[in-house]
Structures are given as structure tokens and as C-alpha cells.
Write a structure and sequence with these properties.
This protein is α+β, with helices and mostly antiparallel strands and 185 residues long. 54% of the residues lie in helices and 22% in strands. It starts with a helix and ends with a strand.
Length: 185
């Protein structure tokens, strides 16, 4: 395990371009095995944990609608490719019959490629957010901190959604923390 993961959540971290990440207390680079005896989990920890959970929740919430949009886009591309002859006959071009057909096949292929890029982007984003959250969870496991999240959707105004994230803890100095986030659609 990368021990600097502990430091990223700790209030005692000092970032410097010359020395890198060091501890405010020891004035040295992180040098411990499994657990840091000086770790101070407070505001930085809360912020990182809330952001990671909110980002994952938001992506997972929109996952199904995004998958549906991608599938519809891909089906539309396939319909254009398979139905290019019927579409061309409907347009009734006097000249350049094959140019229309080849153009429609090209458009269909571009639409399918676009759907594939959207899918790869969504999967990459999901993987990245899950990885960041798992790094935080691995550190918390070392200190036996367990947490549960609750999302409460508040007012939605002009395309912006208020989301209240409450995290309840076991084995940490606070019982729970609450943050209010405003996300755009």
C-alpha cells in the first residue's frame, strides 16, 4: 500500500515542491508501517471522503440513463447502415445513387463510433471515481473506521440539485458529518 494515501487525508500534511509530501510534526517524508501514529483525520479527511462518495453516487445515479442514450445512439447508427437503401430510395435522387448510400453508411459508422467513445468515457470515469474511493476506504480500514452514507435530495432550482450527504461513522471521533452540495444536471 502506498503510505502517502494516509497523508492525503491527514491534517498534518505539508506539500512542498522541493521535498514533496512531508509530515508537519516529524518534518520528514512518511515513514511508517501500516498505520501512522500521528495521523489527524479531520477537515481534509471529511472533504476527500464526501467528494469521493458524492462523485460515485452521482455517476451511478446517471449511469442507466447514460447507457440508454448510448444504446439508442448505437441503434440509430445501425438503422442508418442497414436501411441506407430504403432511405436513399425515399429521397429519390436522380443522380449519385451510390454516393448517397455510401454517405449514409459512413454517417452510420460515425454514429456508432461516437456511441463507443461515449461508452468508453463513461466507463473510464466510473473506474477512476471507484479507484479514488477505494484508496480512501483502504486507508480507513487500517484505522478500523467504518462509515455509512445517506443521500437526501433537496430542492431543485433551474437545473441545479441540492444534495445533502450525511456520513455516519463507527470508530471515529465524530458520529456523523453532513455536507450540502449543489450539482448541475
Amino acid at each position: 500500500m502506498d503510505i502517502t494515501r494516509h497523508c492525503i487525508l491527514c491534517e498534518n500534511q505539508v506539500k512542498d515542491l522541493d521535498t514533496g509530501l512531508t509530515c508537519k510534526l516529524t518534518k520528514k517524508a512518511p515513514d511508517f508501517y501500516k498505520k501512522c501514529p500521528n495521523i489527524k483525520l479531520d477537515k481534509m479527511f471529511e472533504y476527500e471522503l464526501h467528494q469521493a462518495n458524492l462523485n460515485l453516487h452521482f455517476i451511478l445515479k446517471k449511469k442507466n440513463i447514460n447507457y440508454t442514450k448510448i444504446i439508442i445512439l448505437a441503434i440509430f447508427g445501425i438503422i442508418i447502415i442497414l436501411g441506407n437503401e430504403q432511405i436513399t430510395n425515399t429521397l429519390r435522387p436522380l443522380n449519385y445513387y451510390w454516393v448517397y448510400r455510401v454517405s449514409l453508411i459512413g454517417i452510420g459508422i460515425l454514429i456508432i463510433i461516437s456511441a463507443n467513445f461515449k461508452m468508453q468515457s463513461l466507463l473510464s470515469q466510473l473506474k477512476s471515481v471507484r479507484f479514488k474511493k477505494s484508496k480512501i476506504d483502504n486507508v480507513l480500514d487500517r484505522y478500523r473506521i467504518i462509515y455509512y452514507t445517506t443521500f437526501d435530495y433537496k430542492k431543485k432550482i433551474h437545473g441545479y440539485q441540492e444534495i445533502e450527504l450525511t456520513i455516519k461513522y463507527k470508530n471515529w471521533k465524530k458520529n456523523n458529518t453532513t455536507s450540502l452540495f449543489i450539482m448541475s444536471d
